């Protein structure tokens, strides 16, 4: 554990009295380690409502999951459209008889899937091949600081040093 002296980060919380100043308790390379430290403090009855985990050195990571063709775009659109159609059918089904309810579900699924496929296909085609892949995006920090307010940083450091 090491303290990098972040001090008071800018923002509305740093403008209070000296007792409201933020102080770095410790820093970690992974979010899981910072989360585990807050969990240890919680286990020791530390007032964790005075803590924050602050990530710094942020970067966007985009994980490419595969090639996106017009057919895959249409299939994904059909799946999401079917869910939407099912939702609408269930809402309308509240007011229908039991026999009509089943028909509403089937019709909602089919119409939703068809329109979803159409919108998925057309939407992908409209990009003109500029984004022919699917992906997931998330932010990653290079460092995570556990920060305490209210003059509790030293107490938190002592707890973490004795429970480690």
Shape: elongated
Structural class: alpha+beta
What is the rounded distance between the termini? 10 Å
Number of distinct helices: 4
Give the proportion of residues in helices: 40-55%
Query: What is the succession of H and E elements?
Result: EHEEHHEEH
Q: What gyration radius follows from the Cα positions, in whole Å?
A: 26 Å
Which stretches of 5+ consecutive residues score pLDDT under 50?
A: 1-20
Oligomer: single chain
Beta-strand residue percentage: 15-25%
Number of distinct beta strands: 5
How would you portray this structure in words?
There is one protein chain. By secondary structure, this protein is α+β, with helices and mostly antiparallel strands. It has two domains: 12-58 and 141-163, Alpha-Beta Plaits, CATH 3.30.70; 62-137, no CATH class. The chain has helices spanning 31-43, 70-93, 98-126, 153-163, and strands at residues 22-28, 51-56, 59-67, 133-140, 143-149. The strands form two sheets. Strands 1-5-2 form a three-stranded antiparallel β-sheet. α2 packs antiparallel against α3 (98-126). Residues 1-20 have low confidence and may be disordered.
